[in-house]
Specification:
The chain is an alpha+beta fold. It is built from 3 helices and 5 strands; from the N terminus they run ββαββααβ. Bound molecules: iron/sulfur cluster.
C-alpha cells in the first residue's frame, strides 16, 4: 500500500488530520509519520519492521527520528490497513 496516498490522493497534513490521523514529526529525519488508531488492525508490520521507530507502550509510540527515512518508508508501505501515512519533507 502506498502510504503517502489516501483514497488515491497524495496526502497533506490537512487531509490526514481531517480524517483522524495524528502527526508524529521528524526533526532530524525529513519525514512526518501519521497514525490513525481507528484504522489500525494491529497486524504488527510496523513494529516488526523497525522497533526503534515503532514501539508499542512507549510515549510517543512513533519516533520518526529513530530511523533512516528510506527504510522507514518501506515499513510504512507494508502497513496493510492504511493506518500509517507519511509526508516526506525533502
Ligand atoms: S502495520 Fe499498520 S495495521 Fe499493523 S499495527 Fe502497524 S499501524 Fe497497525
Amino acid at each position: 500500500m502506498d502510504a503517502n496516498k489516501f483514497n488515491g490522493e497524495t496526502v497533506t497534513d490537512e487531509l490526514l488530520k481531517e480524517n483522524g490521523y495524528r502527526a508524529y514529526k521528524g526533526t532530524e529525519q525529513p519525514i512526518d509519520i501519521y497514525y490513525n488508531i481507528k484504522t489500525c488492525t494491529h497486524a504488527g508490520e510496523c513494529v516488526r519492521g523497525n522497533r526503534d521507530v515503532f514501539e508499542v507502550g512507549r510515549r510517543p509510540w512513533i519516533i520518526p527520528d529513530n530511523g533512516q527515512v528510506d527504510q522507514v518508508i518501506e515499513v510504512l508501505n507494508r502497513c496493510p490497513s492504511g493506518a500509517l501515512k507519511y509526508i516526506r519533507k525533502d
